[in-house]
Specification:
Helix 1 crosses helix 4. The radius of gyration is 15 Å and the shape is globular. 31% of the residues lie in helices and 39% in strands. A hairpin with a 6-residue loop joins strand 2 and strand 3. Strands 1-2-3-4-5-6 form a 6-stranded antiparallel sheet. With 142 residues, it is an alpha+beta fold.
Length: 142
């Protein structure tokens, strides 16, 4: 990404921006005031119509400008552990997302096809995160 780590992390720190860059998140209902401090949560909605579900993501660890580790709940599927790592690069940042199902049905059904679907989803998620970070770096608000 062309934005520096601090700018990328500023997007991560803004819990209300998650619906703009996390694929599958329809709306953010609320964000704990100290987010992304360890233990804080953001509350979101996924899906549409009868497939709509309200759930939450909790912060497991946070190293500002470097790493944010989350547990996303998606009942009845279970939960996933998600780590976003940011490394400085000559022209901005290198950002990685590592996501894997860690509980419930999602963990039991975890397989190479699921990994590929998660990878495709996260490629788009990173593209959206890059767009928001570039906007912030250029002085435009989200």
């Amino acid at each position: 990404m062309s934005a520096p780590p601090a700018t990328v992390f500023a997007v991560l720190r803004d819990g209300y921006s998650y619906a703009d860059w996390v694929v599958g998140t329809r709306a953010i209902r609320s964000v704990d005031s100290e987010f992304p401090a360890v233990g804080t949560r953001l509350h979101y909605t996924v899906g549409y119509g009868p497939l709509r579900k309200d759930d939450e993501t909790q912060v497991l660890s946070c190293e500002p400008d470097r790493c944010l580790e989350l547990r996303a709940h998606a009942w009845p599927a279970g939960s996933a552990r998600i780590t976003v790592r940011i490394e400085p690069a000559d022209d901005g940042s290198v950002v990685e997302i590592d996501e894997y199902p860690d509980a419930g049905l999602a963990r039991k059904l975890h397989n190479p096809l699921v990994d590929k679907l998660i990878e495709l989803r996260n490629v788009e998620t990173l593209r959206r995160l890059d767009r928001l970070a570039r906007r912030r770096a250029s002085g435009f608000s989200d």
